TrEMBL record, chain A:
It comes from Chelonoidis abingdonii (Abingdon island giant tortoise). This is Nicastrin. PANTHER family: NICASTRIN (PTHR21092:SF0). InterPro entries: Ncstrn_small, Nicastrin. The chain crosses the membrane at residues 643-663. It is found in: Cytoplasmic vesicle membrane; Endomembrane system; Melanosome. The keyword Transmembrane helix applies. GO terms for cellular component: cytoplasmic vesicle membrane; endomembrane system; melanosome; plasma membrane; protein-containing complex; secretory vesicle; vacuole. Residues 24-197 form the Nicastrin small lobe domain. Belongs to the nicastrin family. Essential subunit of the gamma-secretase complex, an endoprotease complex that catalyzes the intramembrane cleavage of integral membrane proteins such as Notch receptors and APP (amyloid-beta precursor protein). The gamma-secretase complex plays a role in Notch and Wnt signaling cascades and regulation of downstream processes via its role in processing key regulatory proteins, and by regulating cytosolic CTNNB1 levels. It is a single-pass membrane protein; Single-pass type I membrane protein. GO terms for biological process: Notch receptor processing; Notch signaling pathway; protein processing.
From TrEMBL, chain B:
One of its GO terms (cellular component) is gamma-secretase complex. This is Gamma-secretase subunit APH-1. GO terms for biological process: Notch signaling pathway; protein processing. It comes from Chelonoidis abingdonii. InterPro entries: Aph-1 (IPR009294). It comes from the Eukaryota. Component of the gamma-secretase complex. The chain crosses the membrane at residues 31-51, 66-85, 112-130, 150-175, 182-201, 213-235. It is found in: Membrane. Potential subunit of the gamma-secretase complex, an endoprotease complex that catalyzes the intramembrane cleavage of integral proteins such as Notch receptors. Pfam families: Aph-1 (PF06105). It is a multi-pass membrane protein. Coiled coil: none annotated. Belongs to the APH-1 family.
Length: 682, 316
């Protein structure tokens, strides 16, 4: 009675059990289609049926006497065949998927077989034999479930305890006893996930813009997926002006986002995190080299956001470069090095992918060869074997493809796979730390886990070392590269922070003071979302600043307002006041000022800038808006009981009316005392 | 689910309350009464809330004990407010009598007793049921934690019995106050405590509902007798008026019946009142009673006070 005043009244608590640890499937739209799930306005209710093997599905689809059903599916059975069966049935009102621990052995990828098809460089005009994965199917395990449109809600049950509660309710009330029909009351589930946007981006953006233009209280129905790219240069440049057209820049790129079937579930360990952590380690290693400021060419470390959704970040950067809105132009780019998925190297081989079409160009080909040679030279002595894939093989899905669309640039993409992905859980909820074989011994405290160096970290550190050395050579460095080493401890810390827990002591010491909500205790997710500056982007920004920047002796005011103190150098740098680490003896922190070259640039698709919502050139992905997303279970009563109750109630009503009429009519009899009777009032 | 249940189960009072609703004075008083009941509930719940907050939430037994204490306090407070209202009403009637031309009040204390009880009952019923009805509108029913499925149905029946009981208690209580029969008031308080206490036997619904209904019938019979009825009248009315004319003996008001063994003559000086009908020593045995007055179309006193179709009984 006394606790829980916050939630509902006691009658509501008697009836409903809310499910708190769930993730919904939401609706996303692009220029031509809508994908994802939709529920009714007031939620969808159905009798729970647990499907643990394929035969259980028969009850739901044909045999069960109490449709519609709400299916509780084991994660192993979450396949395309089963989902298509459910999609066609009218006896399903929703689906709850229990996450499978351990991950399904045969692999699971709800992404497409050919990711970002049509938005890369290969098309009917450029390498038609490579378009639409005709040459290589990159993601053969992809079942495309995330790109289907479902008319019922689908939720993910993340907590095994909640799944057990639901199964217990099912076993108590819904199990058919010896083939007979289960009796009321039955255990039921209700899922609320009503999406406001329909059809495609063109429709929903048109409706939203009408609302914004004409309504006093605009009700927008969808939002474009957008965020920020993070970039930094080895030698500082003035970000508000353009660099010298003669200057050459080498671009190093990785993506920092991922996706899965469910909203905001995107651990992305192999598809994104391992790559950008390696990139960060290489950047740190390079900054430690003493003579980098004298290198002839500059190096730009770029972290693209939104690459999962048809290259939002990289297409925007190319567009900005073309429109002269970015300090660096396409002509400044000397070469391009991209780190794709690098964590699952088979017998320590790292594959070098190049674009066969641009290599036919006589000026590009030698530059590519130089690139590859630099990489191979750098791998001597490290536990990495670099090998080129066949020269006629196309590039895997990568941000480099967007740059090639604009201009032929020599570049390579490094990956751990030769043909199709090594990642069997590409863009799924199972692409977690276990997928990249991060293993920690038992019984370690969080601090010890943070500092423990896993084998994965060592492997990625070696890749980072090779990349850093190659970049030094490509940038014109002439010194000995054997001193350039990436730090496995730092790699391990980053992997822990981006895959297991962001709220650790190292991350706490490198962020700004007033950003407490940035670090959480649950598993980090790397979905681009529609709000600006998701946690991942901010954390990458702070980590990059910490690893590549220098500590300067400024006061807090000077650090926060650098324009106050006149110094021409100040325009080249960005100053961040970070809160520093905690003294072991006291509880206060020692903040300091970090000088770095880390910048943010908008990563929103040019289609929305140009208002070309039906564009096939740029990404048009939007996310629907919604009001209420929740799930709960309860018992439902039989229709017979309800009817009986109603009839009893009406009978009592009629009886009472008749009785009142009777009493009223006979009042003079009923209430007269014997002997005096009399109706006379006065 | 139980939406129509609760609605219909408590709509049993729609019959008598329609009568009540037609009389504006009674209506106004009834609303005031409902407000009084609400205030009493507010105060008693405040006491319980403070007690709960000040105590250890983990101690189940203590919480249960506090709840029992809260219920006790609430019952006593409700009855206290009923008494308070009675006092208020007496004052009001005195004032109205002083103001009126012929020294009779526009509404009798018996009517007010009935309205008082009904007002209390309706408010208590509404309070109990609205909460449940709001949740009954959803798709679920009680039971997932093991509670009985009949929760809504039994709540509706319990509310019905409470409304009835409040009505009869109103009549009994006011009669006790009028005739200085303190034991009647004590009986009301006592039965109220019993019925509230019986609800602690839920979910053993048989244990709480059956005795409550028995008590309700007993109280009903008692209130009926106090209102001037007896078994003979009951039988007569059931036989049908076609057969036997009611014993209508017209007597002049002046030939008021002597006291039939009833004592208690603590009436204040209403010497200006010619007609003692309202304030007779045995008010409930007389012709002036709510049903009779309204049914026969004759208003107490001149009828000039009431406007509207007081004469027409609603169901005729």
């Amino acid at each position: 009675f006394s606790s829980g005043f916050c939630w509902g009244n006691s009658v509501e608590r008697k009836i409903y059990i809310p499910l708190n640890k769930t993730a919904p499937c939401v609706r996303l739209l692009n220029a031509t289609h809508q994908i994802g799930c939709q529920s009714s306005m007031n939620g969808d209710t159905g009798v729970i049926h647990v499907v643990e093997k394929a035969q259980d599905l028969k009850w739901v689809l044909t045999d069960g006497p109490h449709p519609p059903y709400m299916v509780l599916l084991e994660g192993e059975l979450f396949t395309r065949e089963l989902m298509l069966q459910l999609k066609g049935s009218s006896r399903i009102s929703g689906l709850a998927v229990a996450i499978s621990k351990p991950s399904p052995a045969q692999g699971f990828s709800p992404g497409l077989k050919c990711p970002n098809d049509g938005f890369g460089v290969y098309s009917n005009d450029y390498g038609p034999q490579y378009a639409h994965c005709n040459w290589t199917v990159w993601n053969p395990l992809g079942n495309g479930l995330a790109y289907e449109d479902f008319s019922f809600p689908i939720f993910l049950l993340e907590d095994a305890n909640e799944t057990q509660v639901i199964k217990q309710c099912y076993q108590d009330h819904n199990l058919p006893q010896n083939g007979s029909v289960p009796e009321y009351p039955l255990c039921a589930m209700q899922l609320f996930a009503h999406m406001h946007a329909v059809t495609n981006t063109v429709t929903c953006m048109r409706r939203s813009s009408l609302q914004t233009a004409f309504s006093l209280n605009p009700e927008e129905v969808c939002d474009a997926l957008s965020d920020y790219n993070v970039w930094s240069t080895l030698k500082p440049i003035n970000a508000s002006s353009k660099i010298n057209p003669v200057d050459e820049v080498i671009i190093v790129a990785t993506r920092i986002d991922s996706h899965s079937f469910f909203w905001n579930v995107a651990p992305g360990a192999e598809s994104a995190v391992a790559s950008f952590v390696t990139h960060l380690a290489a950047a740190e290693a390079l900054h430690k080299v003493p003579d980098v400021q004298m290198l002839p060419r500059n190096i730009m470390f770029t972290f693209f956001q939104g690459e999962t959704f048809d290259y939002i970040g990289s297409s925007r950067m190319v567009y900005d470069m073309k429109m002269d809105k970015f300090p660096i132009r396409l002509d400044n780019i000397h070469s391009f090095l991209e780190l794709s998925q690098v964590a699952l190297r088979n017998s320590s081989v790292l594959w070098v992918h190049t674009d066969p079409v641009s290599r036919r160009n006589e000026s590009i080909q030698p530059q590519v060869e130089t690139l590859v040679e630099a990489l191979i030279n750098s791998s001597v002595g490290a536990n990495v074997t670099l090998q080129e894939v066949g020269q006629s093989q196309p590039l895997p899905p990568s941000s480099f493809q967007r740059f090639l669309r604009a201009k032929s640039i020599p570049g390579v993409v490094l990956a751990d796979h030769r043909t199709s992905f090594q990642n069997r859980y590409y863009q799924s909820m199972y692409d977690t730390a276990e997928n990249i074989l991060m293993k920690y011994p038992e019984g370690l405290s969080p601090e010890e886990t943070l500092d423990y160096v896993t084998d994965t970290a060592k492997s990625l550190a070696e890749v980072a070392t090779v990349v850093a050395r190659a970049l030094y050579q490509l940038a014109g460095g002439t010194g000995n590269t054997s001193a350039i080493q990436a730090d496995p401890r730092m790699v391990s810390r980053m992997l822990y922070g981006f895959l297991i827990k962001t709220n650790n002591s190292w991350f706490q010491s490198i962020i700004k003071q007033d950003l407490k909500g940035l670090l959480g205790d649950e598993l980090p997710q790397h979905y681009i979302a529609v709000t600006s500056l998701v946690n991942t982007t901010q954390l990458v920004q702070y980590v990059l600043a910490n690893l590549t920047g220098t500590v300067v002796n400024f006061t807090k005011e000077e650090c926060l307002n650098p324009e106050k103190t006149p110094n021409p150098e100040k325009e080249m740098y960005v100053y961040t006041w970070v809160q520093g680490s905690r003294d072991p003896n006291s509880t206060s922190r020692v903040p300091f000022c970090v000088q770095s070259t880390v910048h943010l640039t908008k990563a929103a698709s040019p289609a929305f800038e140009l208002k070309q919502w039906g564009s096939t050139e740029y990404s048009t992905w939007t996310e629907s808006r919604w009001k209420d997303i929740r799930a709960r279970i309860f018992l439902i009563a039989s229709k017979e009981l309800e009817i009986i109750t109603l009839v009893v109630g009406i009978a009592i009503l009629i009886l009472s009316l008749l009785a009142t009429y009777f009493i009223n009519a006979k009042a003079h009899v009923l209430f007269s005392s014997p002997g005096d009777g009399g109706t006379v009032a006065y | 689910v139980g939406l129509v249940v609760g609605f219909s189960a408590t709509s049993h009072v729609s019959g008598p309350s329609l009568l009540w609703a037609l009389d504006p004075v009674a209506r106004g008083r009834g609303v005031a009464l409902a407000f009084f009941w609400l205030v009493s509930l507010l105060l008693s719940s405040l006491v319980w809330f403070i007690a709960v907050k000040a105590s250890d939430p983990g101690d189940e037994l203590l919480q249960k004990g506090l709840l029992i204490f809260g219920v006790l306090f609430s019952v006593l407070l409700q009855e206290a407010f009923r008494f308070l209202y009675y006092k208020l009403l007496r004052k009001a009637i005195e004032g109205l009598v002083a103001l009126s031309e012929d020294g009779c009040s526009p509404i009798s204390i018996q009517q007010m007793a009935y309205v008082a009880g009904l007002g209390f009952g309706l408010m208590s019923g509404a309070f109990s049921m609205i909460n449940l009805l709001a949740d009954a509108l959803g798709p679920g029913t009680v039971g997932i934690h093991g509670d009985s499925q009949l929760y809504f149905l039994t709540s509706a029946f319990m509310t019905m019995v409470m409304i009835f009981l409040h009505t009869f208690w109103g009549i009994l209580f006011f009669h006790g106050c009028e005739t200085q029969r303190w034991w009647e008031m004590v009986a009301v308080i006592f039965t109220h405590l019993i019925v509230s206490g019986l609800t602690f036997w839920n979910p053993l619904y048989l244990g709480s509902l059956v005795p409550s209904y028995l008590l309700m019938f007993a109280t009903a019979a008692w209130a009926y007798i106090l209102s001037g009825g007896c078994t003979r009248n009951l039988l007569q009315s059931l036989q049908g008026e076609y057969l036997v004319q009611p014993h209508v003996q017209r007597r002049s008001p002046a030939e008021a019946l002597p006291l039939r063994g009833r004592k208690g003559n603590a009436r204040r000086g209403y010497s200006s009142v010619k007609d003692v009908a309202s304030f007779d020593l045995s008010p409930f045995s007389r012709d002036v009673n709510p049903f009779l007055a309204l049914a026969s179309g004759e208003t107490p006193q001149s009828g000039a006070i009431h406007q509207g179709d007081q004469g027409a009984a609603p169901f005729l």
